[in-house]
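User: For a benchmark we're assembling, each entry needs the component sequences followed by a predicted structure for the full assembly. Here are entry 17's components. Please fill in the structure.
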Amino acid sequence: MNAPEPDNTDTSPRARYERWVTDHSVELYRFALRMTGRGEIAEDLTQETFYHAWRSMKSLRDPSRARAWLFQILRYRYSHWLRDKGRQVKTTAPAEPIENRPGKDRASTLERMTRHESLQLALDDLDERFRTPFLMVFLEGLSCREAAERLGVPLGTVLSRIHRARQALRASLAQQERASERNSSGTRDLRLRGA
Amino acid sequence: MNEMNQEQVELLRQRMGEVAALSPDNPLRLAVMAEVTAAGAWAEAEWLSLQRFDEDVRMALRHGEVPGGLADRLKRMPDEAPLRSPWVGRITRWAGPLAAALAIGVTVWVVNTGHAYTVDQIAELAVDNHLRHSYVQAMTHDPHEVELKFANTVDWPVDVPDLSGEFGYELQGARVCRFAGHTVLCTHWMHAGRLHVLYQFCPSDFRMPMALGDSTHTVERADAYDVRVWSEPNGCAYVLVSERE
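Assistant: Structure for entry 17:
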């Protein structure tokens, strides 16, 4: 759970808006990126979010809830985007091929997740029902109960969906790992045969 | 270590997965951790692995390049979409009585010359409104909040049917809009990944009978829309516009 933000009611609307950009644009962009898997879409959604926040600034009655409000707008813009895309949300190929990975210690697992975007590929394959609560808790930083309240579902449903999301992510990452190892050993065999 | 059969092992694994994201002091999580300790080394190793995975994912999710200049572009956005100038408010203040008089005149003219709308025309107005406007003025999942927020905005009782329970729709928000000069309340609902827009209006505003029955229509625009129109004993009528898959 996030601590309430400082109350900026005594600043001008423009100053308050710029403070939101400074404080929250990076995490909103990353949330959009993880939801959509595409940088240019994430940037568009972030811009739409701030545009709507600026235009409807007066509707935010409690400025200390700005972060939660911005995330709410972003999730709403995302639902529109999903609708317009007909839910055909798939990312393109990873930026770098997943091969020649380092060893299996914990640091290298984290490194692989971040550098090769294997985590994003796994997230893209997740069903929307599981991805949203997972990211609300693991990236937005909400508690499971807060996520349940915002999604309008019971806490048990959120816990179960997060569990299933985690299972799917682990399976997907393991599958990518095995595929990468097969590629590496295949290349090695070809080299041996060539020799 | 207590002996557990396969079913008990799987059950504990599931419970571990479900409570792992809860806060450390959550009673549910503490109860499962006690079960983990009782189950022995294998369970403790899996619990640790789960924790490490979650920690890694949290860190990895926060990794990623942010486009250069994004914050600057966002900060410049108000220049392109400025808020209303204070001068507009001052002009509005003295122009208000004039506008009110004009509005009364227009209303009298519309009432005297207005025609009775048909259910088909209402269905078309709803689809056209839906295509022109996609925003909401209040974002909420709670129909009661919509009723409270817009109670003083319209001159008939706001009564938002709860489509979430039996029908499984999720309320996204609401706004007021105008059909042919008359105020209508619009609520957005999501269901199975599709947007459904529900309009509440007063039939007498459109010179329609109070009881409209219950009818379904198809309105063709660039896409086809399913539209249902019905009235309720509360004196209001509803139009539900659903996008097709």
